[in-house]
Amino acid sequence: MVRFLGGLVGLFFAGMLLLSFIWGAVSAVPVVAEYGKFVPPTAEQEFHKHPMQVAWSFSGPFGKYDKAQLQRGFQVYSEVCAACHSLHQIAFRSLADLGYNEAEIKAIAKAHQVPAIDPNTGEATTTEGAPADKFPLVYPNDVAARAANNNAIPPDLSLMAKARHDGSNYIHSLLVGYQDQPAELLRKFPDAKTGEGLHYNPYFANLNLAMAPPLSAEGQVTYAEGQPKPTIDQMAQDVSAFLTWAAEPKMETRKSTGVGVMIFLLFGTVLAYMAYQNIWAAKEH
Ligand code: HEC
Predict the structure, then answer these.
(1) How confident is the model at residue 37 (pLDDT cuts 50, 70, 90)?
(2) Does the beta carbon of 164 lie inside 6 Å of ligand 1?
């Protein structure tokens, strides 16, 4: 009797398994028929774009930073992005890489207030920056950052060019890529409407980000005499180049060392081959 009941229970479970398998297979048929795979694509998969490729002066094995461009990019960062984004890993004195002299760097540092301790009371206070100081934080903490930015935190930009795939191109594309949400997207994914306080940008991973387009008009930043026209695209390229330098200030050294190492290895290979020929010359083979 017990065996019989056990058999029945087993049969029941096996039957349910078979049923759910059949149910799953049947319900997958229309999805597979329409999309050719088991899971329908999401709005991100269909509408996310890879960054546009810019011909950077620093691309390739012999690439070098264009100092004039880095200075323009620093200007864009200071006049636009610095309102929300910190650059907390960078010391003012590192700006010497961009071609600024000591007096200029002192002046830049002085224009920033950095945290300090009052020598008389020991209280936390702020003071004018010195070249050895780092760029100060924009907000004292994440709560303040969220409160000022519609509940989103503007990330520190020091390493942003390295933190994102194809970072230099990504930052440029993100800055120039804002657009209206495509009608096709809303037709296919009615639930994916860009939310309140968000902005549609196909280069951002989930298509909607909390940063309003920071570069919105030609001439938003005034470049010095003899520099290119400050179009949105030019400003975006310049600030991306500057942030690439910020994330990788030693790139030129890395590349030139790489070239030297390749030449050395090539020379070593030739020597090794000649030694091989010499050592085995008398051996028949
Ligand atoms: C008014 C404030 C504000 C300004 C000005 C601003 N940003 Fe942002 N930015 C934000 C906020 C907020 C976020 C976070 C967005 C999110 O997570 O949805 C952000 C995010 C970013 C990101 C990260 C995107 C990612 O992949 O996570 C980059 C890069 C960026 N900003 C670059 C810049 C640059 C370059 C400038 C200057 C040209 C700039 N921002 C100016 C507020 C600002």
Answers:
(1) confident
(2) yes
